[in-house]
Every structure is written in structure tokens, then in C-alpha cells.
Design a protein that fits this description.
256 residues; alpha/beta; Spore Coat Polysaccharide Biosynthesis Protein SpsA, Chain A; 9-stranded mixed β-sheet; two-stranded antiparallel sheet; 8 helices
């Protein structure tokens, strides 16, 4: 099965992360990387791996970059990864044992979120489709995020991926501000009846920041992770506060 898979990765100034990701992909015959003209050591690291093929494209959207990447892949299967995703040995072995002939067209994988290099007890990250048949897939924008839509049957693997982002916290702040603007647009432009329960809670502006703090610390067990758990809970609470501020600003601005 591994021989039929091409990993696809998007990069932009991912020097703190990308090598740990690539070290777990040495089994791949080809790795396709779509780079948005990185200015740090990302390209130097990528070039040190002979199976990596780099294509540079000015960033327009995450979905646009991913779809561009799919055009560069000829293998039957694609393993779509962020530059801070690190495969576990258990997941590699599980993928290796998947049947080559199957009526499954995509596989979802769960995540373990890492803070300062160590996994937390729980995370807000939902399972994501990361392994899928190339000819069945297309990416679409979804608020601040992007999703792959895959025709056919889907299944979930039992092993995990580590989400281990070690970029400076200032990068996280700037990213959250951008993501919040996109999420605000989605929440305000989507009819209320089409929003999920979580999205409706976020529209209230007041409840989401408080609930997410409790959810991270108590429900997801972050309080047992010490300061790493508090760090993650503070991050997610701040992200919700930024979104609430954006929502309030847009709603009052539109009323004037």
C-alpha cells in the first residue's frame, strides 16, 4: 500500500517543523510539496530529501494550493499532511497493512496535539481525512479552514498523527487574526439554520470563550497536563475571544 501513496504537504516558512515531518516519510518514493515562496530555511531542508519534489505557487487559498498539488500527483493514493504533522510508527504500520483492493476511498485519522513537543491528554482537533484516492478528491474552502471532499466510502484508522507545531507564538497570533476574519465572514453569511451547534454557540459571542476554557481543562483533561494543558486552553480561549471581537465589530459596523 505504501508504494501507491504520495504525501502532499503545503509549506511557508516551516523550518521549525518540516524536518520532523519528512523524517517519518522516508518510505515514500515521492513527496510533493507546494511552497508559497518560503524565505527561511524551509527550501534548504526540503532539498536535502531526494524524493521531495518542490513546486512553488503564490498563495491564494489553502484549497487552491491543495488542488494545485493534486494536479502534480500521479499515484493512486494521496496522504495529505500539514507541515507540522508527524506520523506515528503505529500509523505507518497500519497504513502498510491496508488492503490494496478495497471499496474504501478515503481514511480519516485522529490527532494528538502536542505542546512543547509532548502530546496532551485531549485535543479539540477532530479526525481528518488525510489518506484518499486522488481521482475522487477535491478541496473546498470552509471558513478559515479547508476540507477535502472525497466521493465514495470512508473509514477511520485507529492510530494517531501528532500535531506538533513549534513555530514562534507570534506566528500563531498572526495566523489566528487571519483565520478569525475568515471564520467571521462564514458565521455571518451562513443562515443560522445551516450552522452547526458549535457554530451557533460561537455566534452568541459570550458563551464560546468561557465554554472552551472549561471544555479544554475539564472535559479534555488539560488540567492534568500541567502548564502545557493551561497553555493550550489559554490559546483556544484567546482564539474564541478574537473571533467574538471580530463578530461584534462586523455586526455593529454593518448597522451603521
Amino acid at each position: 500500500m505504501l508504494e501507491k501513496i504520495t504525501p502532499l504537504i503545503l509549506t511557508y516558512n516551516e523550518a521549525p517543523n518540516i524536518e520532523r515531518t519528512l523524517k517519518k516519510l522516508i518510505w515514500a518514493k515521492q513527496i510533493v510539496v507546494i511552497d508559497s515562496f518560503s524565505t527561511d530555511q524551509t527550501l534548504e531542508i526540503l532539498c536535502s530529501y531526494p524524493q521531495v519534489q518542490i513546486f512553488q505557487k503564490q498563495f491564494d487559498s489553502f484549497a487552491g494550493q491543495c488542488n494545485y498539488g493534486l494536479e502534480k500527483i500521479t499515484s493512486e493514493w494521496v496522504l495529505s499532511l500539514d507541515a507540522d504533522y508527524v506520523l506515528t510508527e503505529e500509523l505507518i504500520q497500519e497504513i502498510q497493512t491496508l488492503p490494496e483492493e478495497t471499496n474504501i476511498h478515503s481514511y480519516s485519522v485522529r490527532f494528538k496535539y502536542c505542546v512543547f513537543g509532548k502530546p496532551l491528554s485531549g485535543t479539540l482537533l477532530p479526525p481528518r481525512k488525510v489518506l484518499y484516492k486522488r481521482e475522487k478528491a477535491i478541496y473546498k474552502e470552509d471558513g478559515h479552514a479547508h476540507k477535502v471532499w472525497v466521493e465514495g466510502n470512508s473509514a477511520q484508522l485507529s492510530s494517531y498523527i501528532y500535531h506538533d507545531d513549534r513555530k514562534h507564538v507570534s506566528r500563531w497570533f498572526s495566523s489566528e487574526i487571519k483565520y478569525s476574519a475568515l471564520e467571521t465572514k462564514k458565521l455571518l453569511e451562513t443562515p443560522l439554520e445551516q450552522l452547526s451547534f458549535v457554530e451557533r454557540v460561537r455566534r452568541t459571542k459570550l458563551l464560546a470563550p468561557l465554554l472552551i476554557l472549561i471544555y479544554c481543562l475539564i472535559v479534555k483533561g488539560g488540567i492534568f497536563d500541567g502548564w502545557r494543558g493551561w497553555y493550550y486552553a489559554f490559546q483556544r480561549t484567546l482564539a474564541e475571544l478574537i473571533l467574538a471581537i471580530n463578530l461584534i465589530h462586523e455586526e455593529f459596523t454593518n448597522k451603521q
